[in-house]
Amino acid sequence: MEPTTPPQRRFAVLIDADNVSASALEGLIAEIANYGVAIVKRIYGDWTLPNLKSWKEQLLEHAIQPIQQFRYTVGKNATDSALIIDAMDLLFRSKLDGFCLVSSDSDFTRLASRIREEGLMVIGFGERKTPRAFVTACDRFVFTDILRGAAPEPENKPRKSASELKLDRKLVDLLRWAVEASEDDDGWANLGAVGAKIMSQTPDFDARSYGYGKLSTLVEATGLFEIERVTSQGGRVDVLLRELPPAAPARRR
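^ that's the sequence the OP posted. Answer follows.
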């Protein structure tokens, strides 16, 4: 009997065109594919305005449905209301496993929390200016500047060195806390459990922000942890890590 693959998560992707750059779209679609399949793809904005021209050129290629929302009053964001209403309709009428909310606007904080209350996953996407409240309301938050096509090529974004990583107290404390919270009696922690702890504490954490493609390479680069790779009988490789003891100070002669 052939092994069956687990069904993919089904997501609704709702994009606030006013608060995210169109340059991130290609990388955004690729990133969402890492989590599941986009069943619904909608983008909201006033398409009569010239500032959304950059979005129009890509909608057909990625099969994203544009939702027209006129700005009847200057200074009021009607787009937010339209997106929120559609999200609530989809939440109760569609068989979804989660939502991808693409915006840098704090107005979607309560929406993200409400969706999670129903047991669905929420992945947020936005620019670095995104308010912290919206970031932490999501299960996972990805900054669009690290997505493919939205930032300079990797060679223009050098990896942080081990010394630079060790000086980042916020990073070091987070990694040490996650390892300690996940370790067994011998001090070893499974990298998967460590990653889950990190995401529960900091939804916007991403190894790519430090120039590394994976959490394992970032952790290894810090030089703070002993790394061991164990292959199970099924062929799966588990990465285990534990904190190295502090180096002894050099003796004075």
